[in-house]
Structures are given as C-alpha cells and as structure tokens.
Amino acid sequence: HGAGGSGPIEAILLVLNKLPESWMQKHLTSITCALLQSMRNLHVHAKADLAYAKDALLRVIDLVHIRELRAATAADTDEKNTPATPKAAGESAVDAALGGGDDTTKAAEAPEAGGGEKNAAEEGAPADDTAKTIPDGGGAVDSVSPSGGGDDGGGADADRNQADTTPATAVEPTAAAADAVAGKGADASGKATATPSQTPPSDMHQVVSVLSREILSTTSSAAAASGAREAIERLAERAKCTPSFLITSTHEKSHELVEQLLRQSLKNRTVRNQQMLAVKAVTFCVSVEPPLLTKLDEMDMMLVFLSDAASLAELENYPNMVLADLQRLRAACIDLLAAAIAWEPFKTTTAENAVKLRNRAIAVFFKSFVSPSSEIVQAAKTGLKVAIQNSKLPKELLQNGLRPILQNLADHKKLTLDLLHGLGHLLELLSNWFNITLGEKLMEHLKKWLEPERLIGGGSTVKWRHGEEAKIAAATLKLFHKLPDAAVKFLETQGSRPGLVVLVTQLEAALPMAGPDSELMSPYLPPLALFLSRYAAQSAQYFLDRLDQEEYSRRLVRLLPLPEAEKLRDEVAQKAMQIVQYCFGSVRPEGSPEPPYTAQYSGVRLIWTLHKLKPGWLAEQTGVVTELRKRWIILAQFLEQLNENQRPEDVVKYGRLPLHFKEGRWILKMLVDTVRCNHSRNLRLIIDIVRAVGSSVGTGLAGIRAEAKGKEREFIPSGPGLLPDLTFLHVFFREIAEEWDAKDRADVLQYVLMFAKESIALSKKGTPHQFHIARLIDVLVLPMLETASARGDINVVVNQESVK
User: Which of 148, 208, 214, 454 is least surrounded, with the fewest CB atoms within 10 Å of its CB?
Assistant: First the structure.
C-alpha cells in the first residue's frame, strides 16, 4: 500500500476472480472490510489500485444472496406494519426476518422502559459451544459477539452465562469499520470488549452494516466512501429497493450515525478530509429516496450544517489547504446545497432562517458560475437547475444573481473566459430571462477584434491573459446559439451590422496567421457551426442561395464535417436534389442563363462532401444519382474533345482543366460507390463509368489490365498538367469480375453486350464510341470471362442471351 504500485492490488483482484464463490460467500464480511481498509490506505493518486479495489469490492457484493436480501427488506416492511410483540432475547426485527439462531438457547425478555433494550441471559441457560469465528480486516481471527449497543456486527455467540453489560450507546464510526461490524464493543478506555451474544446476523446484514458505516464515516477516505456508496447502490438495485430502505432495514442505529454527522460543525472539523467526508455523507443522506434525514428535530442541526456549507462554498482560499483540494470541497458543498434544495423538509418549510438560507444557496450558485474550476461550475449549474425545477424563483433573486455578470459584459475589456463560459451555462438554464439586446452587445464587442491594433485602446488594461484574444472572441461567438429564438436575425447582414457568417470571415482575416489556409485552423468555425445548426433550415437556405459564390460554397464545405454542424449537415442533405437541380441547371426559370461553372463545380463538391460524411446516403438518393450521371456524361463529352486535340476556349482562357479533372473524379467515385451498394440495379452506371477509360480523365489508365497497386492518390503528374489518378476504377472492375456472384456477373455481361451491339450499329468506324466499346470489352468483359472459366460457372455467366 505504501509503495503505491498497482501490482499487489491487481494481484489480489486476480486471486479473488479465481477463488470459488462458495468460499468467498463464507467470508463476505471479512473480504469487504479488508478491501475498504485497503482503499482507505491507498494514496488518492493511486488510481489504478483504487479501481482494482473497487472492482474487487463490487465482485464481492455480487455474491450476496439476493433471496436473503429480499427476505430481509420484505420482512422489515411487515414488521413496521405489525403491532409490537415481545421478542426473544437479542432478537431484532432483522434477525427475525432472517430466521437465524435457535430459540431454545435464548431467554425471554421484555423491552426495557425508556425504549432501550437490555441483553439478559437466564441463569443456567445452556451455553453455545460452537463459536463462529470471522476474520477481521487485518486477517486476524477473533471469537467475538455483536456489541451490546445494538450495532449490526458479525461474530460468534460467546458464553451465554456471562453477566449483563451496560446499556449501549452510539458508537462513532471509525476507520476500523471491520472491528465495529465484527461486533467488538468498546469500554471507557476505547479498548474492544466482548459482550453477550445475540443471534448472529447474516452475511448480508453484516455487509450492509459495514458499507453503511463507511458511507457515514468521517474517518474514512473519499475513495472508500465512494466505493461503499456504489456498492450499497448495487445491492439495493439487486434487492429492488432504495439504498436508504436497505440501510434502515438492516442497520437499526443508522439514524444515530446521521445525527453524529450533524452535531459537529463543519467549521470545527479541522482534520484533513473530515469536512469533505462529512459533506459527502450528508449529501447522500438527503439525496437518497426516501431521505435518511426525516425527523423534524434534525432540522435545526441541518440548517447550521447547510449554513457552514454555504460559507465554505464561497471561500477563495483556506488555511493549510491547496487550491485543488479547496475547489473539490467547494464543489462538494454546492452539491450538498443542491441536494438540500430538493429535500422536502427544507424545500417546504416557511421558517425565516430556512427561507434566507435557500436564497443564500441560490446566490452561491450564481456566484459560482464564473469560477475557473469546471467542477464548481458544473455543481452550480446542477444546483440552479434543481432550484428552478422545484420552485419558481423570485424575480428579484434572479436579477441580483445576474447583475454582476451582466455588468462585466458592458465593457469588452472586462471579458474573461470564465465569465463567458459561465454566461453560456446561465443562458442554457435561463434563456427566457435574456432579450435579444444581449446579442447586439456581443456583436459590438466582436467588431473590436476586426482591428487588433485598436483592441486595447485608451491605455487601460484587459482582464484576459495575453494570447487569449482569439479564445475570447470564439467564446463570445459560442453564446449566440444559446440566445432566444429571435437571434436567428444575426444570420443575415442588416445595414452596417454584418451577419455572423460574414463576421467570422472578417475575424479570420484579422487572425495573426491569416492566409489561404487560415480557416483550417480557425477557432471560430465550431461556434459558428453551433449557431447554424440551431437554425438549420434557415442556414441551409442561406448557403444554397449563394452557391455560385466560391467563398460561401467553400465555407459550407468546411463547416459540414464539424461535429457541431450535425443538424446543418442533415438539413443540407435533405436539400440535395434542390442543390443539383440549381447547380446543374436542370430546373431553372425559362429565359434564365445557365448557372456559371462555379455553381456546377460547387454542387458536385458539396454532394461529394455529403457522400463522404454520410456513408450509404447517396445510394438512396435516386434523383441525385441521375443528375450526377447526366453531369458526368456532359463532362465526359467535354473531355473526349480533348482526346481529339480540341481545346474549348473557356478551358484555355480560364485554366479550368484541373477543376474538370477533380470534378470528374468525384463524380466517378460517387457512381462507383453507388453501384457497390446496389449492384445490378445500376447496370447503366457501369457503362457510364467505363466511359472514363476512353477520355482524357483516363489517360493514365492505358494499361488498366496491367498490374495495379490499388492505392488511390489525389493527383499524379502527367503531361503539361495534373491528371487524376483513377486506379480505383481498376479495383472496381476487378471487384465485379472476381467478387460479384455469378448471377450478377451474368446480368452485367448481358447488359454490356446489348449496349455494345446497339452502339456499333449507330456509330462509324474510328469514332470515340467504338473506342469506348473496345475499352469496355478490355477492362470488364474479358476479366469476367476469365474468372468464370477459372471458377467453372461459365455456363451461368454466359447464358444463351449473351451468346446471341
């Protein structure tokens, strides 16, 4: 344990996993105590060890007999609904439910006046010679009996002829939970003593007692308490009851342990980790259903405890405590305040001091939103959310909480990342309390970033750290998608105020690394994508109306792959048919000019981007595929002119040949993927794809049947310009010949031969059509015949129709 290595604990876990379940079930309490003790001793940073120990603990917990669990909880319910009757000596409600012990060895006993129980053994009663031994957490074997204080402990029955002990008092939970649960009492000096025996509790009884004490102890450790809470929740889930019901059903003195937590003030707990453990334990008590804190006489102590927690939650520093520990303590106190807000006695009381404390807790939530600790901010967000859900917050209280944050927003020099992140969380919870003027103010601040040299003017200092300028602007942009619905107006430019898309373009131009690739490293794209996805329908139409403008088309293509743009991506995909019809000019008003080539290229690039981001999507878009096929035929005809040494004027004038090559390659890849998804349903596409082999796009494929590496590259140098690498076509044709089943290959062969026959009849010798047919036979027909011959299914592939 001291070394902090993961070897010993990992080895213990491996051993436990190999041990027989029957053996482990006999030692559940001992193993549970030992594992909790090891978790207390481990260093907080020994995360691997702690994880192994928790896994071992849960492994042990899963061995508790579920039938016994249900019997105990069910019997406890029956007991509470049944009038009290005299019990045998030492027989509790849980003992009766479990049916343990031999009634012949007990003496009759009536409850003592004042509510206490007194253990008594009749003189001359037979002694129990068989003492059950249970090892403690350290591995020692003691013959012990349950303590006279009624603590749920394990151990053997001692000699029943022993004299009566003094009445029990509540025992403060200590780190040695094993001793307490094993049944060791304590005399005035603190030394463990044996007391007269009662009916031995079951393993389930003892395990729950161990876990309960660990959860409600202030001398444990955060890891052990957390592991115990997880274990008790696992047990409760298996028993189909709540953790609190399980604890109270098997631990008769649990309420005394809870009261002990509240008796001592948080401020007076100076031992390291005691404050944290006490806060976590009380949080558990009020957050479980039903709460462990239910008595009205506990309310006054609880209010004092909550007041101390609120004071700790507001501390910026604390003597002899490092910042990280203080932040964890503050977050735990805020969690407690949040749990108390939902606690019925505290929520419904009209006592003046309780109402003031509730309002103070809400003020703590607001103040904590600007903390640099994400743990504190998250706890405050949860607390405020709980407060909103449980009651209608007074307007004055909300205004007082928001005022400090909004005052800092008045000046851009007072902006900080913590302030902006906190405001973002508040907008998520209270967006209806903000109006659209907040967006106008944020737009004014962002304009300051367009002139970096004037960002810090007047010689005054700023609150952000040097180098955080772009982060501040990005955090400001991230607020727009959380504003009320009317914020959609910031999409479009209005007067002198630019729209957000235009503003982001301007902000990127002002970045220190401004250049052709600045948008690739832009911190502004993710927050812009969040805004555009919030108003996906309007944003998609905004870009589609501007597809003929390269800057908007490129911007949309850059935005779509972002995780934040998921809704925008889906909306654009739904408008795919509208995109291709507009960009390719297939549907346009009569008399309107043909779309410029920029729009055509942008449309293909946009569909290609969606195809990459949404696998399988294009195969379902029949209309889009048809438009792409038409576009490819036009492009192929254009490229075939290049084969005949014809140079269209616009290619020479505008140098668009590389764009044509890239566009053609995108369309071909989309058509190939569509055929792969649908096979024989797209036979015509195969013919159109082969056409690429006879055009300038396929210049690099003269030896397509030669050995191909099957690796795709974006471009390869060829001739005076850059020609695309189309080796993926060879891979595709090889798939058809070698991987498609015989029937699909037969359909392809028959369709290809029919197409060839019709084309030969309509073409003249030496035309591109005949060259196309020759390439079709070379790259597709012959490989299919070779494969069919080698596999012996030639009669299936080449049917009578193909022969004709």
Answer: 454
